[in-house]
Write a structure and sequence with these properties.
The protein is an alpha/beta fold and 292 residues long. The chain is 35% helix and 18% strand. Helix 1 crosses helix 6, helix 3 packs parallel to helix 4 and helix 7 crosses helix 9.
């Protein structure tokens, strides 16, 4: 299959590109970054805001994975740029569909859901996005579902839970813990009981490849279905780095408004997907990668 990937040089997009190429697909990455591409990967010079339409038409994609979006930790949740991404993405994806691209997979977010204290299910959990980022993702999904796409084009909306792994931004939870503990800094966990669905980037990539390869249509959670506390993550990393003594937990930690964000992964598992990277293995790989 010929797959166009936006955000293909980013954390999750690059993981997908590696998996898709290994599976025998032909990949083109939309990017303005002059970064080296693996042999056989075509770079199309452009952006979501300014796509190189002649090059895209020559590539003639059959599917598109849209992973590009603002994602800088500490910035993306409240950035006004999220609205630009809605407009750019809408225009790109509608035109791709009109060109004959018959499958679109777009990355959404788990925080589109209202948090209920129970596993979040595509068909049972109401949406209640509270940040500009989550609201923008919901808006794009609504636009794409409003009849603007040809009936021949299927749309998968992949709600990503909490990815981690080698190559992630240094400000993300696991990497920031590794850095602080290696510097010998004490780590006081603010919300140690907060429970999230952490999924390795390689497992995100294989899940997205199953969605694209089977031309799944509809909303689908991309998570393991298992919750892990922040404290458990921190203590595992503390052991791996050799500084568990630096981690402290308050006696009465404050509540986290996103206290339990765990996927109901039934729909994803129905595609035959299973996670392959256990958390302990994934964290060890991350710690080793950040040592180089």
């Amino acid at each position: 299959m010929r797959i166009l990937v936006t955000g293909g040089t980013g954390f999750l997009g690059s993981a997908f590109v590696r998996s898709a190429q290994a599976a025998g697909h032909t990949i083109a990455v939309l990017s303005r970054q002059l970064v080296p591409m693996a042999n056989g990967i075509l770079r199309l010079n452009g952006s979501v805001a300014e796509p190189p339409w002649m090059e895209i038409e020559r590539f003639a994609p059959e599917a598109c994975l849209h992973a590009a979006w603002i994602a800088t930790p500490g910035v993306y949740l409240d950035s006004p740029e999220n609205q630009n991404w809605v407009a750019w993405s809408d225009a790109l994806l509608v035109r791709l569909a009109q060109m004959g691209v018959n499958h679109l997979t777009v990355l959404g977010t788990c925080i589109e859901y209202g948090i209920t204290g129970r596993p979040l299910a595509e068909t049972a959990t109401a949406l209640n996005p509270v940040s500009p980022y989550a609201r923008a993702k919901c808006e794009l999904h609504r636009r794409l579902q409003s009849g603007v796409l040809p009936t021949s084009t299927s749309l998968a909306w992949a709600r990503i839970f909490y990815p981690y792994g080698e190559g992630e931004h240094p400000a993300r939870l696991a990497s920031s813990l590794v850095a602080k503990l290696r510097r010998g800094e004490p780590v006081a966990l603010k919300t140690p009981r907060s429970t999230k669905d952490y999924i390795h980037a390689d497992d995100v990539a294989s899940a997205l490849l199953a969605v694209v390869g089977q031309r799944f249509a509809g909303a689908i959670n991309v998570g393991t279905g298992e919750g892990v506390t922040v404290e458990a993550i921190a203590r595992e990393i503390g052991q791996l780095v050799g500084r568990p003594d630096l981690i402290t937990v308050p006696e009465n930690p404050p509540n986290d408004p996103l206290d339990f964000v765990v996927a109901d992964a039934t729909r994803l598992r129905s595609l035959g997907w299973r996670p392959q990277v256990r958390l302990a293995v994934g964290l060890r790989r991350l710690v080793e990668a950040r040592a180089t």
